[in-house]
Amino acid sequence: xxxxxFSALPxxxxxxxxxxxxxxxxxxxxxxxxxxxxxxxxxxxxxxxxSILTQGIASNLSGALIFNDKQTGLDQMDALSFDPEVIxxxxxxxxxxxFAKLDNLxxxxxxxxxNINCHSSIFFAITHPITLxxxxxxxxxxxxxxxxxxxxxxxxxxxxxxxxVLLSAFALFFAHRVHRLIATPLLSIFHSMQSVxxxxxxxxxxxxxxxxELGMVTRCFNDMLDNLSHRDSLLSQAFQHxxxxxxxxxxxxxxxxxxxxxxxxxxxxxYYNPAARRLLPYITxxxxxxxxxxxxxxxxxIFNDFEPINKLLALEExxxxxKRLEPIIIRHQLTNQLYQVSTYPIAGVNNSLIHIEDISAxxxxxxxxxxxxxxxxxxxxxxxxxxxxLNIETKNNAFIRIFGDIDNLNKLxxxxxxGLNFSVFKQLxxxxxxxxxxxxxxSELSNNLKDTSAWLPCLVTIKTIKxxxxxxxxxxxxxxxxxxxxELKRLSFESNHDALTGLANRKNAYQRLIKxxxxxxxxxxxxxxxxxxxAVNDTYGHQCGDELLKVxxxxxxxxxxxxxxxxxxxxxxxxxxxxxxxxxxxxxHNIHTVLQHIxxxxxxxxxxxxxxxxxxxxxxxYYWDKYSRSDLESAxxxxxxxxxxxxxxxxxxxxxxxxxxxxxEY
Length: 666
Description:
Pfam families: CHASE8, GGDEF, PAS_9. Helix content is 47%, strand content 25%.
């Protein structure tokens, strides 16, 4: 109601009334607020001042109460008379009797039983206890009047009322002046606009009649027409630029590899780019008339051969509800191609933009990457990837399980110095890989690096990863625990070698001799039996005998070549296989040289624990030709017979047999 009433008022009153009302109400509200604030402040100050004065007088009255000196008490209370608002006060002792009393009551107030009753005055009382060393001596009660405060507040209100009347009159005058300043130019603009409307918006400009505000407005109006003409020109250019930009956008959309469809809620496709046409062959359009609308198959028919159904239903639901659909993956039932589809609502209209992309190749690549990551994590060897700065970039589960989740290469220790010189680095950078055998430990594997169990024998393989510029970007370090492999080698060595001397045992020796014979290699089989070994055992003990066998084993090994066989069969019996060709007399002489060297070496004294022992050997030799059809057992029997022949002939000699008869004996 008020809004309609104010809207119907003339412009003059619309300007005057608000200004006058606003200034008048502001003055009244300001005056009332100031008067109220001054009254509250004055009242608080009066109460605070009276309370402080009461506390001070009460503290000075303790002595007068103790000595019952009423005159001193009255003298102390006379100090209250200096405050004009204090109208009365009295002191009562601990026995509730009046000790001293101050009476400055106005005429309209009187005492009634130690209380004050006033007809027209407003007052308040403050009572404060009188104590000395926590002993209660009495109470001091002071009455203060608020009449002066209310009188001052009434004076302030009167002044503000008078000021409000003056400001209201000034506001009315000011509103009239503002109306004249505003309404006159508006009337001039109104008449000028009527003239422009009657003449029409043309290239003609209004004439400036007077060089006043109206003239300035007229010039501004003419400038406005000039700006409108210029804006029309700019709009034409903008439309042309927009058309060019639209053409550019269409070219960009046509060049995209991802398909784009614009679909309204009725699922009738209104736009598609060439990529969508390639991805969805069921899209059709009218090729006879380019000006006609697109004629396409329904959206459901286009995705008819795709699955799963629940995702297709979600796609249609989001299109109908004009909502965004996060990317989903659908599969073509015939080609098994995978497509990623998402929808985006187009602002301003209810159309939805469908984005479709063939992700079959990407999905396959991601699957391969996941498989590679799974293989990396499930690799039994510990694998870490280092950057060019040798920072740990990633590590697999085996590395974390064995060496801990370390984040710095300095926490991985090598027991031996690798000795990575320039040639080794060159091999690594040239060939792209490097293999090193080392004992490895880490800070999390053990805190005591002196503990042998803290070190793992490992095969460290370093491979480089290079970029397209053939520059090394990172390193793949594979650490394979060789504990089981070394244990298998140790067990294999123990099963094929003599535990005391470390020489090949009977089984190993037979296997090697048979293998070499199968490879068409001739060999001299030496059956060695020590002379005097039993006497050493009986004289110095079996421990000394074991040490003697170790020395004999070392001497036999040093007497032959590396490819030759040295084995211990049992006790003090040894078997040697020497691979010399017996095709020339010179080479034939070599076997005798070797045999004599063996005899001379064994004959040398052996010092064991300050004891000197001496043994000799009887050696039976048989030449097992590579073309011989006799088996190893037969050949060894011949060598054994030759050894016994050497013993019968006096020991410390060798006897050589070939096929059926001996060749040479010494």
